[in-house]
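[audit] Reproducing an earlier prediction to check determinism. Same input, same settings, fresh worker. If the tokens differ from the archived copy the diff job will pick it up downstream; this log only records the rerun itself.
[audit] input (202 residues):
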Amino acid sequence: MGNIYLMRHGQSVVNVEHRLTCKKLEGDLTDLGREQAAKAGDWLRDKGITRIAHSPFHRAEQTAQIINERLNVPLSMDDDLREMNCGDLEWRTDADGWHIWEGVYQRWMLGEMEAAFPGGESYRQAQERYQRALLRMKPDETLLLVAHGGITITVVPVLCVNAAALQRDRRLDNTGVVLLEPYGDGRFICRAWNWTDHLREV
């Protein structure tokens, strides 16, 4: 059975603007983000990737497309890989909006299943949909899934049997990679967190 390479998208305009974008798909990659994606594609050439799926957000789609210029494998969109739905906080950049977001985010980090963004989704809903995306893997595949930082940081550790080892540092840089090995019963072994070897020259 193959592995899952789970990658955060490259740097985008909305990252630079520090904008909450959890529903609108807009947000192109910056020049740096495109360079990060190209470096990631070169690094992934020898990893045996057989298929790529990406979130519907433009920043994830563009990252996946740039990578696939190097890999040339089947490429598709998976709506379950989208970023956490922050509901009424959508498109805000102000301190108050981020304060509300941070409060819910911290509750997700603590595993509070019913914690929800105002007008958005709960941790339980996010975990269930993200897990669905991971479980679409076929036994003979090695996948690259291009998704987002917030949802990955909060959901993936609790799906891993070695979750305790991931508590110290859950940072995930743009195009940082998480390597998952299927374990069974819908769970995984996390073999690497925030791999950024390809970014050393960016």
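[audit] rerun output stored. Observation attached for the diff report: The chain has six helices and six strands.
[audit] end
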